[in-house]
């Protein structure tokens, strides 16, 4: 079906500026398009509209028409159609734009409304910003600066409510700070489909709570913390760890599955403190699973490889690369690449495999998905391996074929890019028959058996790209420096490649991309710096016949090409 | 849930009166409370299950409306009006007298399990203030003396019932 070039557009006027917006746009979004901020708490673009905070009150006017003839009424003074302003304010979140709608956000009445609403919201709100985790990213704090009075007329006692309720294993609630916007309730019901939150004792003592005996413990519970406009819901993991204004934000990608959830990594002085979702309307909206938020802990987890090792003794990078190259040249090599490597690393892995005349394998990680933002493929970048040509078929469930080749003696050296070969299905006796070169971040059974071990970086410590399940190529950036002793995967791979007699290729994304663009057809028109923050969709048609493991998730429907089971009967 | 057959019949009858099942939550709560005397968590879950909603949605209602009780009360429910007219005409004294007669506190079950005395808002009989409702019966102009009479009557009835 061919879409009309422009959807049904209507013209509205926001503070004197005319703008065309699609029909059905609400007043907040219409104002946002002309850069006018309408303060709000309960409204969230991805949730249903309830209109209970009243903060977004604006003045609304419609062009005047003669009641009888429906002819426009022209103001003789200006020669333009007169506007009938409504005598009372209206909430911008729940009012959709209609043709000719006028919105005024700057009038004295709007100012008075905002001040009034702010005053009521602040009546029972504790003044504990100095010890509140939300300070610095709190809408109430921001807007009381903008629209608050600066002093309080309230002389009565404030309400006392529970200050430390654990709603679930990851979410802590301070009921006194809650402004009853109900975003968390709507999120739980509408997005997470786990309707456990609600207000009880409605009235002066309205309290947010879970149904007795239930917990907010679904894998999306921390999104309620993100959308909480105040400090009522806080993350038990991040609580009291760091002031948000000290943190540096770096765009990244959630590596836990092939959904490729867009994230922001918050770090300070080389330490990551939290991961939050980044809005991408084509991938994850504004959500992310809780499981992806703790991945940063692997950075400082024990078992990080600290120095290159050759035959068990510590070596520097150069000699480790030389030793690895010696194991590769002239030997019968197999390369086990990784669906967790970036596109750039997979490209160099492919070059290395080609140079060594090796067959490349990939470790499959198919598991349970939740049809929302956790897909069934736990590798973030299997499609990157297909696009770069590292593999041409989907990875087999086990490395059995490689095991057979080891047993028959047709492989004598295995290069593993971050993959634990024992966990991937090879036996210890098979691994004893080959020399292993291991590039990776953490100690595991394979690194213990390897002849050469070279420590590399986690996703938080390097730049690169992943191709997600939609064939969307998305960038991630370096948030923190890697630990001393480890080297960027690209540096190691390109050194290894040239030491094995291959061509000298760039050792960072910037200098490597021209080579990638010239050799990978799907990426031929691209440069690393040109990939937008929300990613770029690649042409997936060359791989349309492959039976990918993924089931439908948010903004993703698997291609109907290969039905898993033939219909019976 | 151990509901009487009659209550179950009424529940089945009332649900289709509404365009969406959820709307029947309030009538169901009333029916269950009439049957059981109070709304237990088990009852909340039973109603939620019946209306295909989550228990939290029913729990919100139960905590909002003062007429729904989450704990059992005495065999008789004495509701004393405390809204303006009755308050002026001595509703508080009436209430205190009831509490004294049964040796109980406000909102508690009396030691003999016979009554629960509570304040309620306007019973819509301001002209005959102070008024008291005992179960479903309205008693007008209930001053302390009349409260004593009513208390004695309840006690007497309790004795005959127990014998």
Quick rundown:
The complex is a heterodimer of chains A (569) and B (163). A 7-stranded mixed sheet of chain A has the order 16-15-21-20-19-17-18. In chain A, strands 1, 2, 3, 4, 5 and 6 form a 6-stranded mixed sheet that branches.
Task: Please specify the SSE layout and strand pairing.
The complex is a heterodimer of chains A (569) and B (163).
Chain A: E1 9-14, E2 17-22, H1 27-33, E3 57-63, E4 83-85, E5 90-91, E6 102-104, H2 108-123, H3 139-147, E7 165-166, E8 171-173, H4 183-190, E9 197-200, E10 207-210, H5 222-227, E11 233-235, E12 248-253, E13 262-268, E14 271-277, H6 297-300, E15 308-310, E16 313-315, H7 317-328, E17 333-337, H8 343-355, E18 359-362, H9 382-388, H10 400-407, E19 413-417, H11 428-432, E20 435-440, H12 445-449, E21 452-455, E22 464-467, E23 472-476, H13 489-499, H14 509-519, E24 536-537
Helix pairs in contact in A: 2-3, 7-13, 8-9, 8-13
Chain B: H1 5-14, H2 25-36, H3 41-51, H4 55-64, E1 76-81, H5 84-88, H6 91-102, E2 115-120, E3 132-134, E4 137-139, H7 144-162
Parallel strand pairs in B: 1-2
Antiparallel strand pairs in B: 1-3, 3-4
Helix pairs in contact in B: 1-2, 2-3, 3-4, 6-7
Task: Please work out how many helical segments of chain A DSSP would assign.
Answer: 14
Q: Which percent bin holds the helix content of chain B? A: 40-55%
The strand count of chain B comes to 4
The CATH class assignment of the largest domain in chain A is Alpha Beta
The succession of helices and strands of chain B, N to C, reads HHHHEHHEEEH
Overall mean pLDDT of chain B = 93
Structural class of chain B: alpha+beta
Content-based structural category of chain A: alpha+beta
Instruction: Bin the strand percentage of chain A.
Output: 15-25%
Main pleated sheet of chain A: 7 strands, mixed
CATH topology of the largest domain in chain A: Rossmann fold
Q: Characteristics of this structure?
A:
heterodimer, A: 569 residues, alpha+beta, Ubiquitin-like (UB roll), Alpha-Beta Plaits, Rossmann fold, 3 domains, 14 helices, 18% strand, elongated, disordered C terminus, B: 163 residues, Arc Repressor Mutant, subunit A, Glutaredoxin, 2 domains, 4 strands, 11% strand
